[in-house]
């Protein structure tokens, strides 16, 4: 039995994401849709795993906007649905979200956004809490694993009570952290889908689901938000812990609540500092805040990343100035806490020490000195492509084609593991000077290619992965064709959404729920656009280079090369070597070769190491994935490969 | 390869209670004997005098070494034993050949921050020795216990020759100076001997169990992996666990 379906009353170790999924199941979820993105992916994955058993419909959608539309349809038909994405996914979904929040919803609809303060696995540390304020919907933020489950369940009730979307925001340190959760009851009530639309236009239960008349519907929406604010006043998930008369009041939410608690313990300030933990962060429960802001004149707001809570608390306090009197606020705006990156117990403790004028307990000086001496010995460990990764070979081919062309061409990067090509140490050369949002590499390339009339005559390449292709690249590609932008566009097709854990995408023949589905052919789409299309295996260096060279040199057409090779970590490939690869050290000339250590300085595979005693290349067989590509790059033919019979 | 400090230093450091109440040797768990609280149903952890509240454990290594799996198995055993465990970890981008770290907070009662404060780790388990040093410089303290795999995975900067990897001597000296007790074991070779280098994470968990630093044992491990592994995988993982146990010397005479 799946852990997600543990019987009521049992205590299990759930990842925050699993707790959210379980909460949704306890609320009687019917439909879930999302697009993979760290740290959110496990929610849809774990729901997909129990979909059949719990009679759910779960899908990976092509992008976050479509996912929200799929979830909304279920809500319009009276079902409970959830839509899941990472922080920047909300930007993708936001156009529909603006209209959805204006039309309102019927069955409970939760938009779950899992955000990544500090960008541990993102190329941004964007925030979507501001969307909740801007689009006038309630925002909930769980601050423990148990609460992640319970608050999700409550969110469905709230959404149905007010008739609008509820945003539930988690962060990496909640979604990807784990803790004990006591399971509640799984509901046995199953709903039937029924979509009514013949009623009066202003009847939110039976009328058409539209945003017009706009002003009247907007007023209705604001009424819903006000109702949520009133419900928040008595919400059991907001709580205060601390003395009756604290010297300092911390107002916090999400993982920052745990950091704040820890900081108080570190300083032993339980009798002097209180914490108001808010799980309902928009709209703020005004009466509740007033009650606790009254307790003291010093208030610190602890949150990630931008001062969202801080701004909103200050606005409320300004409105209640007569009753509350003048307060001193500490937070991001006065730089008590950093306004960038993620927080941790130490940062909160340091801020607290400053305000409370207490000394920070530190390690013995002698030990710290020893630490410093050791710290200088430790080399950084840069991210790189995995051993056997097709992208290393793909970029090797691209680099060689651009070198041969000699006009300083470049690649517009995109989002996926291959984004690491923008980080210099991942490969020994630099080809990718731009990296932004999903699909934007192709749009940028389309723009760069039109700059020839302004004197920039360089080959322009764009790259994307297979999942990204379906998500956001197609409009940019059509734009390039329509506007005659002569770019070389490369699809790194590794047969899955590799970075986030091999979720299926439209190119595969299997759906999130494991059903067999038709594959949407990338090459077919590209051909239909009118592009010149070729397919190659990036491990075949010679064949791939030949195509790339002609594409890069060519003018007058949109050229598309699909480089197809399965990810080295994919379940079908992982742990299985195709070749047994060795360095014949008798043939390796080391530094004297004249290749400037092409293998270990430029190709940079973690398994292809340098034997410091013999000053020659050496394969680390424990790490080597056996792709055999390095065999083709050694000018001395000192690397040998023998096929492994599996 | 096995390194450890002298017995006198061990006895003074290895069994720590709360800082206020030093624990005498007789109150400690005995090595080799199962010492898990009863597992029936919804239990609250028996308060184990020898364990600090919380016990802060860091498991570190290089992406792809099975760090997450090791932390899940360890946490699963402790939750079954009635503890409240909070794990903090990062994966995704950091998986790709970078340094990875899981923080485990083990408490009889409280949910804690998924990030351990600096200088406050009690036990460090490292699947790669350089990563052990890296974590030590941030989370180390004079009381820390270190259990490290001796097998190096070289960072790209070291392979290209731009950076240098500390020598075995430098590493040993560093471990000696920065920890109360440390073990270096060749878990990778043991795992390779069992047919798959990725088993080194389980070898390390077996070794950790044998050190007696945490209330885990072979029986709890077997029960944990039985939950979601096939029978043949369980057998292989138990072999890896046993190999790890065999690599730790009995520290109590």
Number of helices of chain A: 22
Helix content of chain B: 25-40%
Q: Which structural class should the secondary elements of chain B be placed in? A: alpha/beta
For this structure, what is the CATH class of chain B?
Answer: Alpha Beta
CATH-defined architecture of the largest domain in chain A: 3-Layer(aba) Sandwich
Distance between the termini of chain B: 21 Å
User: Which residues of chain B form runs of ≥5 with pLDDT under 50?
Assistant: 1-49
* Oligomer category: heterodimer
Gross geometry of chain A? globular
List the helices and strands and how they pair.
The complex is a heterodimer of chains A (646) and B (253).
Chain A: E1 11-15, H1 16-26, E2 31-34, H2 42-49, H3 51-54, E3 57-60, H4 64-76, E4 81-86, H5 87-103, E5 109-115, H6 129-134, E6 139-140, H7 145-162, E7 166-171, H8 172-175, E8 178-182, H9 214-233, E9 239-241, E10 248-252, H10 255-267, E11 273-277, E12 280-282, H11 286-293, E13 298-302, H12 308-319, H13 321-324, E14 328-330, H14 345-356, H15 365-375, H16 390-405, E15 410-412, H17 440-448, E16 460-465, H18 466-482, E17 488-493, H19 522-529, E18 532-536, H20 541-553, E19 559-564, E20 579-583, H21 598-603, E21 608-611, E22 616-619, H22 629-633, E23 639-643
Parallel strand pairs in A: 2-3, 2-4, 4-5, 5-7, 6-7, 10-11, 10-13, 13-14, 15-16, 16-17, 17-19, 18-19
Antiparallel strand pairs in A: 1-8, 6-12, 9-11, 20-23, 21-22
Chain B: H1 7-13, E1 55-62, H2 67-80, E2 84-89, E3 99-107, E4 123-126, H3 129-139, E5 145-149, H4 156-159, H5 168-178, E6 181-185, H6 187-193, H7 200-211, H8 218-226, H9 231-246
Helix pairs in contact in B: 2-7, 2-8, 3-5, 6-7, 7-9, 8-9
